[in-house]
């Protein structure tokens, strides 16, 4: 009986020691998925709007998000993940997003959003404080030959451009209502500890 107890204790001890490594592996996989998503979204943006490559290169920072939303009868909600990159320091911050709303309908909406920051304070506020878009905070993008500028609502001003993709392509309107962005403490904590 004492031998079995000793093996059980040794087994439990091994599990306790292995748990942080398993958690780190899971976090590494999630970060790798976000990095891959970012690369795919940026490549698509650069293909559709080549001028954005220079815009992002000259920005103080940018963020790329993937979001999946569901609309069931009167309530809609969604969640996603992404990464913000400070172009000045090279630092990357993993983030989460969530949205909630009301409206009649059924369906699933899968989209990607790219934020391009032209102001350091706007970027820092986004990363450090998170953003909460309530009310009307939509950015309308001109398509193709009708103009190259992205005009934003007053909450975005000229400090931030937003591009949004759905399965159909670059959206003419990036809808940000009822969406909150914040740091992903788990992914950032484990990336900082390495």
Keywords:
single chain; about 190 residues; 3-stranded antiparallel sheet; alpha+beta
Low-confidence stretches: 15-21, 135-155
- N- to C-terminal distance: 41 Å
Provide the β-strand percentage band: 35-45%
Q: Based on CA inertia axes, which overall geometry fits?
A: globular
Annotation field: number of helices: 4
Secondary structure class reads alpha+beta
Helicity, as a percent range: 25-40%
Order of helices and strands: HHEEHEEEEEEEH
Mean pLDDT: 74
| Main beta-sheet annotation | 6 strands, antiparallel
Radius of gyration, rounded?
Answer: 20 Å
What would a concise description of this structure say?
The protein is an alpha+beta fold. It has helices spanning 2-48, 51-57, 120-129, 185-192, and strands at 61-86, 92-117, 131-133, 139-141, 150-151, 160-166, 169-170, 173-174, 179-183. Strand 6 and strand 7 form a beta hairpin.
Describe this protein's structure:
By secondary structure, the protein is α+β, with helices and mostly antiparallel strands. The protein is 37% helix and 39% strand. It contains four helices and nine strands. The strands form two sheets. Strands 1, 2, 3, 6, 7 and 9 form a six-stranded antiparallel sheet that branches. A three-stranded antiparallel sheet has the order 5-4-8, with no helix packed on it.
Element layout with pairings:
Blueprint: H1 2-48, H2 51-57, E1 61-86, E2 92-117, H3 120-129, E3 131-133, E4 139-141, E5 150-151, E6 160-166, E7 169-170, E8 173-174, E9 179-183, H4 185-192
Helix pairs in contact: 1-4
